[in-house]
Design a protein that fits this description.
By secondary structure, this protein is mostly helical. The protein is built from 9 helices and no strands.
Amino acid sequence: MDLDEAADRLYGMVPGEFTTARDALAKETKASGDAALAKQIKALRRPAVVAWAVNQAARREGLLDPLLDLGRRLREAWRAQDAEALAEAGRERTPLIARTVRSVRENAEAAGHPLGSGADMEIEQTLDAAVVDEDAAEQVRRGRLTRPLSYSGFTPAPVRPAGRAGRAGESREVERKPLEAERRRGEAERERRAKDLERALAEAEQAAAEAERSRADRAAEHADAAREHGRRAEKVETLTAKLARAKDKLEAASHRLDAARREEAGAERTARSARLRADEAREALDAARSAEE
């Protein structure tokens, strides 16, 4: 296995599995005796969610081909200064990127990892960079992005030799208008999405603040309940100990009562026997006195 094979394997995984799999693969590679490759594998960075989504789209056959082909044609038209081809590619660019953004999102959802509402702009910027810039296109094609891409350089547009004037200058102006209008539409759309994201962020931050306040209230209630529970438990423990001691005393008193009852019954029998003997002795004495008389 070389670094390319390792990267292909790792960047095909979902972000949540990446780090564990990377570390395990690096450890396995080092154990096999290739410490240099293990170090390179360990240096591979976990992809952001949007980067992962674009990587998965690149791995799915045919999904990004139309976009990458458009980028190739756009760059070739620029190098050849083919105004007609450049204008045609420019007209295709915005709708094709929009369709491809939807395809990337749908592909991620089909893989069980739906993207958040703010992902579309980052996907769009990444795909737009792949259309305009050849290096970006190669990065997207390889499917190993770790972060979304963006392009802030010069956008190809046809230019005529400086020596031509008059109608040539007018021609340049006419040729640039569709691209300029497209650029403005793209900027307006990005600005709209940025504002939507700002509103969504503000709402999320407000919801988070409210949730934090609610959590703090619940935490305070929990602390109060815990203290009250501790006091009650301590009191119950004290009363339980007192009850146990009282039960021991009651049991001892019960034993003493039983013994006293038994002793009383024995004494009663002894007294009854003594009274009987006394009665007998009295009768005998009376009989003797009667006989003397």
